[in-house]
Amino acid sequence: MGNRVQPDRRQQSDEVTTGTRTDVSVIVPTRDEAENVDELVSRTRDAMVKSKLTWELLFVDDSDDDTPARAMSHAAAGLPVRVMHRAPGDRIGGLSMAVTAGFAHAQGGVLAVMDADLQHPPEVLADLVTAIVYDGADVSVASRYCAGAHADATDGLNGTWRLLVSHGCRWLVWIVRPRLWRVRDPLSGFFAVRRSVLVGTALRPTGYKILLELLARGRWDKVVEVPYHFAARERGTSKSELRQGVIFLRHLVRLVADRGAGSPIKVATTPADQGQVHRHPPGRERRSL
């Protein structure tokens, strides 16, 4: 186990902090999303107040615009917002490494991951984190494909071709990792995980599909899927491109071939992280595995 990582330091650590100071860390990787920051912070705050849990919002920022300044203005206003800005020379590994860097700096017992483009509605956060804290899930996934969800070619998937590719990629995942058959959206970018799921797990993330890496290598028993509407992007520019599809295929090949080797990105825990599981009154329909 490594030394405790102090908040807001620019350098990255090989391990997640061993203690937890807050219930939930919402990790948001950003790349030139200044137009969305204010609305994202406001809606996240409202969702987390609804959850009645303590929280922080951690931006892992690779931007060249004023995204970090926008985010820090909310910290200056007293909200639990932190920014880890990565200089151009430190932006190795793209989005997946940004998320794992967020894991290494997060202080929460539950780690949630969400995009900054508002295609992932922050209001769903309350359901994701309470599924773990109160309902005993190890992983909760905001799903585009379970009962009650909505994702089609006219909304967030932005065209029939992307919709077909999304379905095809899910089938490839189920072939490579049959255990994930009942997870209807193993490629979601919007999810939450109990910190202890990653204890002792060596992650080898690549591309955009950090949830796939987590499900393939993490130690979990129960996944809950929460339906949501995958909305179209309203502002900013999509980062999806053909190159990401190639990286995804390489990721699958690695999962087939790799039987244990991993990067030094690890998660440590303490007994406090294993907190009690409480029953929560039913809310939005959830799909348990």
Can you walk through the features of this model?
The chain has 289 residues and is an alpha/beta fold. The protein has a single domain, classed as Spore Coat Polysaccharide Biosynthesis Protein SpsA, Chain A (Alpha-Beta Complex), CATH 3.90.550.10. It contains seven helices and eight strands; from the N terminus they run E-H-E-H-E-H-E-H-E-H-E-H-E-H-E.
Which helices and strands, and how do they pair?
Elements: E1 22-30, H1 34-51, E2 55-61, H2 67-76, E3 81-85, H3 94-105, E4 108-113, H4 125-133, E5 139-143, H5 160-176, E6 191-194, H6 210-217, E7 223-227, H7 242-257, E8 287-288
Parallel strand pairs: 1-2, 1-4, 2-3, 5-7
Antiparallel strand pairs: 4-6, 5-6, 7-8
Helix pairs in contact: 1-2, 1-4
Helix/sheet category: alpha/beta
CATH homologous superfamily title: Spore Coat Polysaccharide Biosynthesis Protein SpsA, Chain A
Major sheet description: 8 strands, mixed
| Shape summary | globular
Quote the CATH topology.
Answer: Spore Coat Polysaccharide Biosynthesis Protein SpsA, Chain A
- Note the gap between the termini: 32 Å
Could you say what the CATH architecture is? Alpha-Beta Complex
Count of helical stretches: 7
> How many distinct beta strands?
8
For the biggest β-sheet, the strand order reads 3-2-1-4-6-5-7-8
Order of helices and strands: EHEHEHEHEHEHEHE
How many domain modules? 1
Q: Overall mean pLDDT score?
A: 76
- Name the CATH class: Alpha Beta
- Strand percentage lies at 5-15%
Unreliable stretches: 1-19, 260-284
The Rg value, from CA coordinates, equals 17 Å
Helix fraction bin: 25-40%
